[in-house]
Amino acid sequence: MKIILSFILFSTVLLVGCGENKYDKCVAQGIQYFKDIEAYPNLSDGRNAEKVAEERCHRSRVAFGSID
């Protein structure tokens, strides 16, 4: 029983780690996108570009294109 619980816990930690890595890549792509369109560090409406990238990537890990 302990072995099974340990395996489940270990698997969960690995899966969560993968999600964070994709999130980080998404945010980095978003920041680069805003830099490319010369909307960094603030968008034309005054919002912080990094915060906007983070918000969009929380909703979808592919908000700024494929990350693979």
Which tags fit this structure?
68 residues, mainly alpha, 2 helices
Structural summary, described in words:
This protein has 68 residues and is an all-alpha fold. It has one domain (19-68). 68% of the residues lie in helices and 0% in strands. The chain contains two helices and no strands. It has helices spanning 2-36, 49-59. Helix 1 crosses helix 2. The longest helix has 35 residues, at 2-36. The protein is elongated, with a radius of gyration of 16 Å. Residues 11-15 have low confidence and may be disordered. This is Lipoprotein.
Q: What's this model, at a glance?
A:
This is Lipoprotein. The protein is 68% helix and 0% strand.
Rg is 16 Å
The succession of helices and strands, N to C, reads: HH
Estimate nothing, just give the exact number of structural domains: 1
What characteristic shape results from the CA principal axes? elongated
Q: Which structural class best describes the helix and strand composition?
A: mainly alpha
* Low-pLDDT windows of residues: 11-15
Total of helices:
2
> How many β-strand stretches?
0
Report strand %: under 5%
List the helices and strands and how they pair.
Blueprint: H1 2-36, H2 49-59
